[in-house]
Fold:
Amino acid sequence: MLLTIQKFTFIIFVVLLLVIYTIFTRHYLAQREETASVILKSLKNDMSELSYILSKNITDKTTIGSNRAILDRTSSNNDFIAAILIADENGIIITTDPHYNKIPPTGEIFHDDTLGAYNTFVLKKGIEGKIRFYQGKTLHTLRIIFLFDNDEIQLHFHETQLSYIIYFGFIPVVILLLSWLISRYFVSIPLEKLRQFAYYQSDIPKPFKLKELEAIRSSMVQTFARLDEEQKELYNMARTDRLSGLANRNALNEYAERLIADSSNAHKEFSFLFLDIDHFKAINDELGHIVGDELLKSVSSKIKSVIPSNDFVARVGGDEFVIILHQYSSLTQLTTIIDRVQQTIEEQWIVENNSIHISSSVGIALYPKDGADITSLMQHSSMAMYEAKKKGRAQYYFFTQELNKKVQDTIALDKAMRQALENNEYELYYQPKADVLTGDLVGAEALIRWISPTLGIIPPSVFIPLAEENGFIVELGDWVLKEAIYQQIKFKNKGIDISVSINVAAKQILHPNFEYKFTTLLHKSQVNVSKIDIEITEYLFLEHNISNLQVLHFIHDSGVEISLDDFGTGYSSLSYLKKFPIDTLKIDKVFLDDYNTPDGAVFVETIVKMGQTLNMKVIAEGVEVQEQVAYLKSIGCNTYQGYYCSKPLCVKDFEKLYQAHGKTI
Amino acid sequence: MYKKTLYLLLFLLLVSGCSSNRYQKLEVSATTWIGYTPLFYAKEKGWLEPLNIKLLHVSSLSENMYLYQAGNADAYVGTQYEYDVLVKNDASLIPVMLFDRSNGGDVVMSNVSIEELQKNTDAIDVYLEMDSINHTLLKDFIQKYGLQDKTINYINRDQAFISTLSTKDINKATIIVTYIPYDTELEKHGFFSIASTKDNLNLLVVDALFTRQKMFHEHKAQFIALKKLVDTAVEVLEKNPYEFYKTIKPYMMELSYEEFTQSLEDIIWLNKNLSTELKSRMEESHFPTNGLI
Structure:
């Protein structure tokens, strides 16, 4: 059971009172008995003294009257004597108070020593003694009786009792009560106030009198004030972007919810803008994050300054902003504001002595047409922003249902594409590579095919760009790599010991675990590495030069050949060819398509000669007619592939082809 | 709960306080004198109890004075002699109320006549209370009757003892200074009055109640009430002396009703009226009258 301090002190108060009263009561009773004993002894002494004097003064009963003065004096001098009676066998001879003229019954006169003194005064009316005197030789005895003044005795004890009650009964109560009240005023109430303050933090208690309590109060006030400040700070931090000082995603959610509620009631429209800085990643990479952050601060401040004061802007990602505009009367006015924002961003920025030119892409979703909640507005404006970027950046794009459908289709494709890997719906087809001079099958390029039981055959041009965009290409590429390597072994086991080319995307090669996975695969499969050819595209050279160089050298050093696919269509550079360990150049189909024109022939021949000069093999892609083969032969190109030789075939058909025609087609 | 406890404590204090009398106890000592009988009457009638006044009774004036001096009485009755004795030690002593003036109540008695006393050549035994008006009365008597050259044998006894003396047991000239009602007893024992404050002696003897000023102020209400009771008792006495006598008889020894009524002739009540002449005379005797109730 938990007690309050007030109840606890009250119980202590009552217990102390009980203890004190028990002690005082015992003391009082003992004191009363002792006092009664002293009074009784005093009366006995007076009686003894008086008896002696009278016994000497009296010569016969008739002379007793001459001793009246001493009787009166004795009686008057003692408050506890009501009267003194002298009596013989016939009755009272003399009394000091005529009022008392009868002798009490023997039982009412004290003669029992076992009776306590106090009880004697309560139960008896007086004490009796003897006066012995001689008349001549004859001994006579008279009775001398002291009658108690019971009123006086009771008054005396009553006054004593009253004194005890006041001094030992009431005063301790008053002292304890005062102590209790003082402790209540100085301790209990302040503690209760502190408790309430700690619990509710409403009214700050006034300063206390006691130093320790005041120290606690003061500490609590300071602590709560600090916590309050920190709470406000945390509240602001939770709703403020630390870098830009703009609202963050939490604040955006709160603001949007309020605005949606208000707009819903008022049937009003507002626009939800998703703004992204174009190529901001390149700024971070080239100029560093410090410059990037400073630029973001400046851009944030600028955006804030150009939108209407009652509108809202939040930074929701690295270079992503959400602007909510609700104070416009027409789409024209809206686009004017957006133009102003974009133009402001497109101004020249000077950050740490760097002159920077940036632009922004803005996606626009309108409430409630394009979304009735924050999630859909965010999603749809984001879609529109990406569409603006796809359309060339530095522009805005309004969300449409068509765009939505397109995005939804992409999302569905992404989901199906991943599911397809789990369902083994992917298959590798192999397109033969033939020697130009002999017509021998010298290799095959593994090409992925997605054969969906529901959607049918889905060409790589549909899903590979998406896979490269969303990173699924790494997972899918790993599967292709493993499948092709093991297929080379299977081909070899069937007597088809040809080289297998495998397309590896830039993201796959640059993945941190690629080297480990590739080495493990080669080791585990025990494949003849000289029969594996990795085809890369020129896009790989665009990024991460040092990393690319290292990983390509790693691949090459492992004995695997490297082919540069689609050569001449991308970011071709002679320095790359010099720096990177490329074994084979693959001439893209576009060059072969116009080989028979003077301009087209120049490119094909140049590439072939460059390959020959650099000691590289050259493979022509997209060869579809015999004239192309003849031409290639004439210019010294080694190998070709294309429909003239064979379209990509499934494993079974490839094997049939190989077995039907032998190694020469 | 706390308020209930507080109320309980206050109630207990109230209850314990209620049992006390409204007045503090006041002890008044008195002697057997006809002029003090209104006090005894009041006591017997039970009038003193509500006032919490206790009347003490002693046999002699000196004993009465000693009782007061010892602190066993808060106020005492007496004559201006007892006042003069004690006021020397306690200047705050004041007379509170007057009872009577002796007009024959103080008596000089003897077993021989004044002439025989004047002729007597032996030592004369004188029984009296030395520390009382008896002594003053005796000096006045000696001076008035030319007994200054006589050998006086002073025998200091209280009136209770003196009243038991008998001419049968005395064979020499003896003087007794006494007052009523003891004189009546002594007359029965053979003594006779030879002088009194009524005629022979020119002595002023006034009976009053004395106390200290502080005591008077502490018990003023009781003293005032007591004065009213005395007045009432005197009125009763004047209207119905027999009833009065029956009430106070136990205090008056063997005094008969006739002797009682006769003795009333020897005093003059001063409880109500104080003549200018008497007042002047009292002031001449340094007896203050201003504070009298």
